[in-house]
Design goal:
Layout lengths: L1 H40 L6 H5 L4 H42 L28 H4 L6
Helix pairs in contact: 1-3
Length: about 140
């Protein structure tokens, strides 16, 4: 049992470390892109290819990895959002099953002399009090 717990703990540490590395790499690349875009918008003469590493196979590979990781992370977030929406929709449909809109039984006719709508003193009761005993 302790072996299983230790293994899971080590996996969690590795995942946390991997995610931290991914976040740092992505933040660094995004920061570099923002810097380059800002300089270009200001009208500065910028060697975009040089700054972004075009032509350098190692930097191009690094950019490709970062882009793939960001896309994969985005797909995971979108999948989680879709699952959450599906769960919410399922809960809504389950909630509406209790209140069947297509119920073929008509509502009972309102009788003004019905003693359940008026108290012993003739006062009109709230909707909760109109319900049959034991209903609420």
């Amino acid at each position: 049992m302790s072996l299983l717990i230790g293994s899971n703990a080590m996996q969690m540490i590795a995942l946390k470390s991997e995610f931290t590395t991914f976040s740092r790499r992505a933040d660094a690349k995004i920061g570099l892109l923002k810097e380059v875009i800002g300089r270009v918008q200001k009208g500065e003469d910028v060697d975009v290819k040089g700054l972004l590493g075009t032509g350098d196979p190692e930097q191009e590979k690094d950019w490709e990895q970062v882009i793939q990781e960001v896309e994969q992370e985005d797909r995971l977030w979108q999948a989680k959002a879709r699952r959450r929406q599906q769960k919410e929709a399922l809960k809504e449909t389950e909630g509406s099953k209790g209140k069947d809109v297509n119920d073929s039984t008509p509502p009972p006719a309102k009788d003004t002399t019905d003693p359940s709508t008026t108290g012993d003193t003739g006062q009109t009761l709230s909707p909760i009090r109109r319900a049959p005993r034991g209903f609420y």
